[in-house]
Amino acid sequence: MIRSLFKKICSCIAFVLLCNLFSYAQVSFKFNITANGKPLLLNDSSYTNGFNEAYQVTRLKYYISNILFKGDDVMLFNERVLLMDAGNTDSIVFPSSNGNYHSLDFTIGVDSALNCSGAQDEALDPLNGMFWTWNSGYIFFKLEGYSPASKADLGRIEHHVGGYRFPNNVARRITLPFPRKLEVKAGSKHTIIVNIDLDKYWKGISDIKIADQALLMTPGRLAIKAADNFQGMFSIKSIE
Hints:
This protein is α+β, with helices and mostly antiparallel strands and 240 residues long. 17% of the residues lie in helices and 44% in strands.
């Protein structure tokens, strides 16, 4: 009797776990960075911004956090903080609940609570080179390279965009409508291709000229100007 009851309980647990496994779908993100309409290649390719300034990119990193899918009657929220690197083109995979989604929201940057939480690991590990000090917090967007238009030594470009304290908070919420409704069903797999147009970093809501602003290393007015261009850089290229 007891053995029979135990078997029934185990069968029920297995059934619930199996149903839970197949009630989720998989959604992947792939971020493609372009400049002058071409894929960005680090170190060995030259590009020109909207002010006819040639430049080369050696490093490009940025934080994405608080990812949100919006649907007709459902929202899916993920609190993960991701450190994106132009040198790594791997996709990011999330389990996703069933539903119909029409847009994607995320934050470029790290919220103030995490900036004030002391030493952390994984994406927020200071060894990743995206942390200033306990006072200034994290660098949200880092672009480094070289340009003949730069007046810094060796023609350097160093844009370290960060700041979480008012009035210099440069975290920006990005909203991207999908080109079509994303219908997520149990067991399905989808890939969202997000395009990042670096041309719009230099020339968007604000003008960022290398000749005038080759070095951006602290929170303040220039960092705010750069961050105001973030929204225009991102778009959904396709859903596969």
